[in-house]
Amino acid sequence: MRHFGLEAAFAGALALSLATVAYAALPNVAKPAITPTVAEAPVEDSAPPAPPPAFDCGNPVPGEKINSPFGLRRLPWEDHGRLHEGVDIAGPTGTRVVAVSDGIVKRAGESPSYGRYVEVEHGVGLTSFYAHLGKIERGMKRGAYVEAGKTVGRMGSSGTSTGPHVHFEIRQDGKPLNPLVFLNREFATKEDLPIKLGAHVSPRVRLATVSEIPESKKALMEAKAGKGKTSRKGKRVRETLTFAANS
Ligand SMILES: [Zn+2]
Q1: What is the tens place of the pLDDT at every residue in 183-228?
Q2: How far is the CA of 100 from the centre of ligand 1 (A)?
């Protein structure tokens, strides 16, 4: 009986395996029910996903560069510099101008200076403003929801403008801020918004040169230019004004 222990173990193992087979042969109903639930998906036991950023700012004209910055600027027909309250982005007429972030249309319309414009409210106290549009996109009416990257209008030269471009502003409670500190950046909370930096205006006045004098400013230009520089027939000072600054 030396092998009794071994035999017993063997018999036990055999019994266990028979039991397993018997169990497996039982009809399905006897098996523990498996209810597919969402719990079957891999469960991450890490922290919940981060909330969306308070302000996620894109670019109003993806792919085009700013050709006139925010700050004090003197246009050729002006005597003094004044604040250029946004940035100008030039491009071909008809280029899509898009909402920089999700928001609600605050107003859309036309003014003598800004031409056709759309203003979008983004919560966190900020609005974005798109002006000199050739065309306002259909549906851009007060109260309409607009998603980031959706077209608000097409680039044009409406209002007081020196060529096809969009004049783009970011405002906080109506006060213009430098859009450069917001574009292509995201801010997790309202407290992260660079309001102070955006409100800073350099004392330097840049003299802008323009490629085309707006019709409404031609008389002013003639008065400023005095004799000789402009012709009464309408051929203008183009040779002295080289590149687009817009307004
Ligand atoms: Zn401008």
Answers
A1: 999 999 999 999 999 999 999 999 987 877 888 888 888 887 775 4
A2: 17
Per-residue buried b or exposed e for 190-224, using 16+ beta carbons within 10 Å of the residue's own CB: eeebeeeebeeeeeeeeebebeebbeebeebbbee
Q: Which residue from 57, 56, 60, 139 is spatially nearest to 96, judged by alpha carbons?
A: 60
Of 3.40.50.450, 3.30.420.10, 2.70.70.10, 3.30.420.40, the CATH number of 55-66+86-198 is 2.70.70.10
30-48 burial code (b ≥16 CB/10 A, e <16):
eeeeeeeeeeeeeeeeeee
- For residue 168, report the distance from its CA to the centre of ligand 1, in Å: 7
Distance 25 CA to ligand 1 centre (A): 80
Span from the CA of 94 to the centroid of ligand 1 (angstroms): 18
Q: What would the pLDDT profile of 55-107 be if each residue is shown by its tens digit?
A: 999 999 998 999 999 999 998 888 899 999 999 999 999 999 999 999 999 99
Helix count and strand count (H, E) for the chain: 3, 15
